[in-house]
Hints:
The protein has helices at residues 3-11, 48-64, 83-88, 90-106, 121-125, 147-154, 158-165, 175-181, 192-202, 209-215, 222-231; strands at residues 16-20, 23-30, 33-40, 44-46, 70-79, 111-120, 133-136, 141-143, 186-187. The chain is α/β, with parallel strands linked by helices. The protein has a single domain, classed as 2-enoyl-CoA Hydratase, Chain A, domain 1 (Alpha-Beta Complex), CATH 3.90.226.10. Strands 1, 2, 3, 4, 5, 6, 7, 8 and 9 form a nine-stranded mixed sheet that branches.
Amino acid sequence: xxxxxxxxxxxxxxxxxxxxxxxxxxxxxxxxxxxxxxxxxxxxxxxxxxxxxxxxxxxxxxxxxxxxxxxxxxxxxxxxxxxxxxxxxxxxxxxxxxxxxxxxxxxxxxxxxxxxxxxxxxxxxxxxxxxxxxxxxxxxxxxxxxxxxxxxxxxxxxxxxxxxxxxxxxxxxxxxxxxxxxxxxxxxxxxxxxxxxxxxxxxxxxxxxxxxxxxxxxxxxxxxxxxxxxxx
Length: 232
């Protein structure tokens, strides 16, 4: 689904969201509430400028609209792989975006993420995954790392990783595997506006992803390990 169709499905035709390059930003009304919308389109690579632009929208919402919910729309191919961005410290800019979202959350803003097209690697981590809850459309493409890259990093043979991915969601890309691991709270089908309203009302404030992953069989030990660390 493209971003224009998505916005109509979520908010009707009266939304005030515009795009400037690969940045989506603006506001919309849903069920009597005004929300801030910020995100990306066209499989955007998250570089220095785009990270700062999204962070600016979040900070303006915190400053000018206390308590207003924030909707993060995700379509990214990950961080921009350019020498310039690396020299400028793209990791710091992406961390800044994450910190702005966390500030908004601590100031009482509900933050809901929605992957509507593509979500890859670091660009996903500092947008949808950092929300109170992240949802996805069934046709979305989600992965943090391709199996060849994972093989290089882990030193595990790619064929072995491919075999493991058949039974273990941790090793496998795909939206259903991220649901199993708890990274995606649920898939949205049918009436997207109704799904959004329910998410704004019912999404958890505390991070339940590890518990969801354990309950769904996708991450069987993460919640236990986290509990042991907290109790140590």
